Recover the amino acids of this structure.
């Protein structure tokens, strides 16, 4: 999860963190260059991390938890929130590689 200054200040960020901490491991990342709302990086059964931004509503938070649990329907509904910018993906991959090996479900 992004803990940059702008993301950390928003109240939605604390709500997303609370929801994620119930069901998975949460890892703090430096700013990834998206300051539009809570930013979550999910590593779910893939080599490439999925970056989701603007997760502000309760429905989006519940879809995020369902997606991490393995629900394909939730993944399709959150597709509009997925970030496809190469610069952001590269920054996230770089930060993940620098971290020591550990179990990660959502960052």
């Amino acid at each position: 999860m992004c803990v940059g200054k702008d993301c950390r200040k928003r109240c939605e960020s604390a709500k997303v963190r609370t929801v994620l901490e119930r069901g998975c491991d949460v890892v703090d990342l430096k700013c990834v260059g998206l300051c539009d709302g809570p930013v979550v990086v999910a590593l779910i059964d893939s080599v490439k991390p999925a970056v989701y931004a603007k997760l502000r509503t309760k429905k989006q938070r519940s879809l995020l938890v369902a997606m991490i649990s393995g629900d394909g329907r939730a993944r399709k509904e959150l597709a509009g929130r997925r970030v496809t910018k190469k610069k952001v993906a590269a920054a996230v991959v770089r930060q993940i590689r620098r971290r020591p090996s550990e179990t990660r479900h959502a960052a």
Strands lie at 40-42, 50-52.
